[in-house]
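Incident review: delayed structure delivery

Summary: a single-chain prediction request sat in the queue longer than the usual turnaround. Root cause was a stuck worker, restarted by the on-call engineer. No data loss occurred. The affected request and its eventual output are reproduced below so the record is complete for anyone auditing the incident later.

Affected input:
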Amino acid sequence: MKNLRRVVAFLILASFATILFSGCSRGTVSRSLAPVTNSGRIVTVDEVLNSQFKDLKQYDTTDLLGASAAIYGFMKSGSAAFDYEVRFYESHQSAVELGIGFATEGAGPNAAITEDDAVFKEGVKDRRLAYGADRGVAGPKYGTYVIYNNLIILCQGANADQGMERCEFFVAALGLGIP
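Output delivered after worker restart:
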């Protein structure tokens, strides 16, 4: 009975602490960009290339089912620069139906960052980030992705929240608007 009281007291205290601190956490920040957004507009490669996006590479999309183009580059925000991989599809529907599997493979904590693990091997080295004291540990570069109209945008970030912040920055910087 004594142990049961301790467990109940611990659970009440833990619940109270969770409620108290969750109101102050960054996780409660509301997002203005949904993970999948369709305003009906088709975004072109030229629109992205004529923005503040700096193109570093254009990937061969032969093995990226349904994609018409894929580019890798970065955008600056103040003194910081964030990497992006932008994949273009004929329509929003094509991006959703054909691109989600490849996007999931390229972003998030379980991203395929070696050619042995990746189905879309083009640019796989650009989708990983070296870290650690001797830079000998590799992890995924892109914290998340969004499907914005006909684009799939892989966004650099240490986790999904940071990646989403940078996806929002990308869409806003292009002047595409966030519905």
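Verification: Strands lie at 36-37, 54-58, 67-77, 80-89, 128-131, 137-140, 142-148, 151-156.
Action items: add queue-age alerting; document worker restart procedure.
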